[in-house]
Amino acid sequence: MRVKGQEFAVSYYKERGVVVFSGTMRLRNVREYDQIRQVLRHAHDDGDEALTLDFCELRFLNSSGITMLGQFLVDARRADTKPIVLRGSSERPWQSRSLDTLRRIWPKIQLVIEKPEERAAEPEPEEHEAEADAAAEALPETNSIFGHLARKQTAFEDHAFFAFLRTNPETSWVWEFIPGMGFWVKTFQDILRLVRERVASTEAGAMAQHILEGDIGHDEWFVTDLKALEMELPTVLELFGPAHQHVRLGSYALVSEVYRADNDVLLLVLLLGLESASYVFFTGMAAYLEGNEFPVELKYFGRNHLNAELEHGIVESGMDAIVEEACARDPELYDAAVALIERIFDAFTLMFVNFLPPERRGEQAAS
After folding, report:
1. pLDDT band at residue 31 under the 50/70/90 scheme
2. Of 237, 258, 323, 332, which is the most buried if we count CB atoms within 10 A?
3. Nearest one of 269, 291, 248, 290 to 339, comparing CA atoms
């Protein structure tokens, strides 16, 4: 059983109990991953042994693909009929991070990260799969908005903040870091409301409303976390003081994009960019808190928030399709959308400097 796209292939090998992913997967929304989900469900229902999902030859998987996998693993947990093995490669750092997040969905999920020399000992893939992989490798990068967004999301994972998280710093740092999020947490809620007010079409309005409703109350989770840590809310003087400067400037830049966007497509691109950057953050934080056995269960920063996104989807189905189709018809709109994505991640890059320990901020800001 096999699904093949322009840049990827997904193949199920019954005799080995393995689903092999290869190439670059950046389909435009969760719904477009339905055929791949069907392959996974068939493989899960076929046979009694453990099912292995092999990602070693997968160069990239976007947030919609991660969401699809999360939903499949949630279904596997509910069925509880066979264990799942996630196999990745040490040559692709994103796999260690993203697959480890997925592993935490269910205790019967095992994660295996292989070194290249270990991979060489595996049985050779069948000839038609090798040909498909070679064809996918030879394909040029596509000029899609979603592809550009996916590449920026991947680059954002290398921000100094996330590199710092991966060093597993002492958990005492969290008490210094969390209050600095306050300005952005509240600003994000305002941005969602402003976007909803400014979109003109019924279709875009419904999508913006859905995202707004899905995020209602998340700012209260932030307050709950502060209480759990026995911390006070930041004061007005603190929020507008020098320690929060980068967060304010990044937040202002993102608010300005709501008014700078002169059509629904660009407003949807703004929402997609916000969701993309947020996914990187919540994935990194959940992995850090759990990996270091943080003594307090956090709602906004912990697994609870990430699970909500895995259960319900990070990017609304159809939103990115509207963006892609509109930009394909209008080169000027495409250029505007690409420039907007660049500005979104520039703002987050600036903002996240504030979340580093003070001794690391100056060096990162200068770079």
Report:
1. low
2. 323
3. 269
Q: Cα separation of 340 and 334, whole Å?
A: 10
What is the tens place of the pLDDT at every residue in 214-248?
A: 888 899 999 999 999 999 999 999 999 988 899 99
* Unique residue bearing structure tokens 């060096």: 363
Give the position of tokens 């990162």.
Answer: 364
φ and ψ at 109, to 5 degrees?
-95, 125
Q: Identify which of 239, 285, 280, 312 has the alpha carbon closest to the alpha carbon of residue 71.
A: 312
Contact 268, 207 (CB under 8 A): yes
110 near 86, Cβ under 8 Å? yes
According to the model, what pLDDT value does residue 22 have? 93
Contact 174, 294 (CB under 8 A): yes
* Calpha distance 282→366 (Å, rounded): 26
Q: Is the pLDDT of residue 266 over 90?
A: yes
Q: Tell me the chain's radius of gyration from C-alpha atoms.
A: 21
- Average pLDDT for the chain: 83
CB 70 within 8 A of CB 44: no
Closest CA to 43 of 15, 68, 70, 22: 15
Domains along the chain with CATH numbers: 2-138 (3.30.750.24), 145-366 (1.20.910.10)
Tokens representing residue 247 in the block: 């967060």
Is residue 344 within 8 A of residue 273, CB to CB? The reply is yes
Would you mind telling me the total number of residues written for the chain in this entry? 367
Query: Which run of H or of E encompasses 102?
Result: helix 93-103
Helix 264-291 to helix 331-353 angle, to the nearest 10 degrees?
30
Q: What type of residue is 282?
A: F
Residue 338 is predicted with a pLDDT of 94
For the stretch 104-124, pLDDT in tens is 788 899 999 998 766 654 444
Q: β-strand 2-4 against 8-13: which pairing, if any? A: antiparallel
